[in-house]
């Protein structure tokens, strides 16, 4: 029937000498019918694919991943089965069912993080020579790589570097040190006279500040000093600005946008790499303030004979991981506190109790602030949009769908966080009380702000403490009130930015901010 149709159309086209025009269109129609109607029907195990004429979904994905995913969900009748999106060079399997996400995290044999990480490192500028070395599994002959102090478990360089960072962030002495450094820097940054950088205007005994600017600078400043001491600041005094600017545009690296587009990420990345390149070549005696993890990753780089360029890349990746989300989550938590006076009073009472003699007891703070905790978790749920990726290593089945090797899996955690069967009809509303009513809700499989499986964020405890510390210091030192609009009206709560692909906690929509009237106590 189809063949008849095609041949009679061809004859007709030939007769009307329109063949050169009609043939390609006809072939395209047939191909599309085959690809998106007949083939899926013949192969029910294959994830349904969002139909396309030319495979340039990457562009759509970059412009609005939320829209593209909604489109895919519509296509599959919103039953949350795995579906696929074709990009230029591969398929992305989109996984949105909480149970399927858990299955992906469990199946480390067929679904790997390494392949994805490898691509990430290449995007970050890793040299070809170093790429070979970092996946080399040390054998008996590689004495330097398996020394007792550095690598008794004989991991390859990348797994070793991940492991070093995990050990840095495990509860204990190493973590205390980095946490205390962060608190010390926050304590220093948050003095009345030092807040000019975020001040928009001055008024009777007080000032009006931009909350967004306040959170951005203080959080990144603190994390930078906790990792590198004063060394990076000494090499480049603007390193915090460069990291902020890099973070704003890092998605361009992650999604491998071609550099001829004159990307915004290029300049800050160059400045950070310039500083890190100098840093990694300093003799160890001049890196005395570096964190334990930085020292150990550099020692391991020596043993594995990794070149300086690639060492700087590894550090950039770690430096960025520590900074990618903190300022945004702090912004959302504090914004909600300022918009909800009752909640703010409760939180103030909780954090005030963690102070004694002008020192902050951070362990007390993290264990005894149920309202702050609920607001923090709810902010992670509402604004956490990490897109977690895996690479399919061998054929595997996830939720009745067969995934083919070579392609990528994408798990947009926002889909889970807005799932109405998990969170109720008001899933789109910020309501911290849901976490108060059910204290184990933070273990729900549809709550994945920190990812899961082998790459479950090792910084999650530090992240929480850094935000709580900022809140505790701010509200102890200053009276802070939401600034009203021109005619005394409460300004609208900022929406979130959906113009750039999200890698973690969402930014506020461009141009949106929260202005705060502030007085010294
Ligand atoms: C609210 C703040 C944070 C959020 C929402 C967050 C989220 C995440 C997520 C979703 C992943 C998994 C990525 C994947 O599987 O593809 C991850 C990994 C990671 N995070 Fe965080 N993170 C935060 C704070 C931090 C902090 C403060 C640090 C370090 C000081 C950190 C260090 C890391 C590292 C090193 C990894 C990679 C782990 C690995 O490769 O095994 N994160 N984070
Ligand atoms: C998905 O379906 C809903 C309801 O039918 C519709 O309003 C929405 O525009 C669709 N979204 C996309 C991206 O196609
Ligand atoms: C509080 O500080 C004062 C003066 O610095 C000191 O004498 C006192 O012992 C401190 N108390 C505690 C509980 O640390
Ligand atoms: C929510 O998750 C369940 C699986 O737990 C899934 O069946 C359902 O379709 C999802 N619903 C929405 C609206 O995301
Ligand atoms: C609380 O949350 C957990 C998921 O973490 C869920 O299994 C449980 O049913 C919830 N309890 C109530 C009373 O809603």
TrEMBL record:
CDD domains, per database record: CYP7_CYP8-like
Keywords recorded for this protein, A-Z: Heme, Iron, Membrane, Metal-binding, Monooxygenase, Oxidoreductase, Transmembrane, Transmembrane helix
UniProt cross-references to InterPro entries, sorted A to Z: CYP450_sterol_14alpha_dmase (IPR050529), Cyt_P450 (IPR001128), Cyt_P450_CS (IPR017972), Cyt_P450_E_grp-IV (IPR002403), Cyt_P450_sf (IPR036396)
Keyword Phosphoprotein appears in the UniProt entry: no
UniProt KW Transmembrane keyword: yes
Transmembrane parts of this sequence: 12-34
Entries under SUPFAM superfamilies matching the protein: Cytochrome P450
Any Pfam family the entry gives: p450
UniProt cofactor(s): heme
Family affiliation: Belongs to the cytochrome P450 family.
Protein name per its UniProtKB record: Cytochrome P450
Organism: Bionectria ochroleuca (Gliocladium roseum)
């Amino acid at each position: 029937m189809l063949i008849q149709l095609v041949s009679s159309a061809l004859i007709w086209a030939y007769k009307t000498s329109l063949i050169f025009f009609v043939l390609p269109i006809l072939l395209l129609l047939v191909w599309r019918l085959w690809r998106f109607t007949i083939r899926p029907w013949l192969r029910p195990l294959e994830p349904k694919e969002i139909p396309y004429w030319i495979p340039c979904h990457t562009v759509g994905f970059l412009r609005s991943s939320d829209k593209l995913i909604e489109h895919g969900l519509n296509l599959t009748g919103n039953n949350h089965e795995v579906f696929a999106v074709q990009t230029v060079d591969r398929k992305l399997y989109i996984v949105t069912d909480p149970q399927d996400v858990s299955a992906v995290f469990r199946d480390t044999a067929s679904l790997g993080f390494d392949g994805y990480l490898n691509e990430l490192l290449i995007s970050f500028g890793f040299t070809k020579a170093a790429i070979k070395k970092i996946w080399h599994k040390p054998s008996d002959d590689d004495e330097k790589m398996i020394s007792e102090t550095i690598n008794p478990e004989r991991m390859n360089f990348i797994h070793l570097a991940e492991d070093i960072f995990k050990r840095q962030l495990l509860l204990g002495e190493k973590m205390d040190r980095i946490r205390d450094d962060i608190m010390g820097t926050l304590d220093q940054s948050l003095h009345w006279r030092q807040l000019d950088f975020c001040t928009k205007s001055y008024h009777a005994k007080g000032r009006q500040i931009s909350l967004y600017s306040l959170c951005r600078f203080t959080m990144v400043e603190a994390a930078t000093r906790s990792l590198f001491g004063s060394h990076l600041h000494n090499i480049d005094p603007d390193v915090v600005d460069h990291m902020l600017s890099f973070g704003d545009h890092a998605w361009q690296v992650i999604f491998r946008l071609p550099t001829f587009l004159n990307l915004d990420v290029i300049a800050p990345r160059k400045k950070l790499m310039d500083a890190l390149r100098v840093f990694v070549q300093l003799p160890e005696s001049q890196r005395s303030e570096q964190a334990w993890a930085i020292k150990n990753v550099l020692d391991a780089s020596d043993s594995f004979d990794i070149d300086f360029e690639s060492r700087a890349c590894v550090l950039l990746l770690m430096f960025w991981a520590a900074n990618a989300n903190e300022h945004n989550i702090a912004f959302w938590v504090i914004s909600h506190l300022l918009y909800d006076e009752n909640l703010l009073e409760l939180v103030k009472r909780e954090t005030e109790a963690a102070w004694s003699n002008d020192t902050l007891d951070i362990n007390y703070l993290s264990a005894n602030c149920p309202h702050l905790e609920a607001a923090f978790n709810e902010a992670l749920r509402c604004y956490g949009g990490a897109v977690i990726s895996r690479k399919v290593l061998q054929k595997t089945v996830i939720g009745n769908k067969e995934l083919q090797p070579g392609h990528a899996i994408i798990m947009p955690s926002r889909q889970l966080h807005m799932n109405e069967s998990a969170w109720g009809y008001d899933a789109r509303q910020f309501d911290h009380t849901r976490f108060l009513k059910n204290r184990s809700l933070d273990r729900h499989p549809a709550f994945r702000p920190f990812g899961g499986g082998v790459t479950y964020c090792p910084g999650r405890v530090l992240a929480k403490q850094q935000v709580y510390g900022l809140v505790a210091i701010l509200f102890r030192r200053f009276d802070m009130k939401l600034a009203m609009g021109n005619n005394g009206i409460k300004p609208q709560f900022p929406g979130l930015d959906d113009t750039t692909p999200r890698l973690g906690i969402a930014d506020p929509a461009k141009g949106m901010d929260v202005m705060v009237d502030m007085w010294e106590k």
